[in-house]
Amino acid sequence: LQISGYLNLLANTIDNFTHGLAVAASFLVSRKVGFLTTMAILLHEIPHEVGDFAILLRAGFDRWSAAKMQIYTALGGILGACFAICAQSPKGAGETVAWILPFTSGGFLYIALLNVVPDLLEEKNPWNSLQQILLLCTGITVMVLLSHT
Q: Reaction catalysed (predicted)?
């Protein structure tokens, strides 16, 4: 098995841990925020997990081993959620959420921009770059609108 498969598993576990943090902290804010965060993470995770499965297959894992390892990495999400719940302050959820949500949001933005910005810089066609920037701004606008409804 190639080292890239194991590195992918480690990164996926950390990613799932932060997702668990975000979901639990969001539910500490309100049910609405919790459900919105859960839906956003699910929409992100479906293609992400399919891609990770393909990476594991390419790294030499058989289908059953790759599927088992993907399930094991999902336990990172449960650990993250448990950590967020256990980290609650006796003064209330507000102090917990005050650091967890910005931490996880910053991580998600960092990862997203880490993937987008290099592509924008290498893009030769300005129309494609403009489309990507417009779609990024549209995503931000949707998040702002959802947070105010």
A: Zn(2+)(in) = Zn(2+)(out)
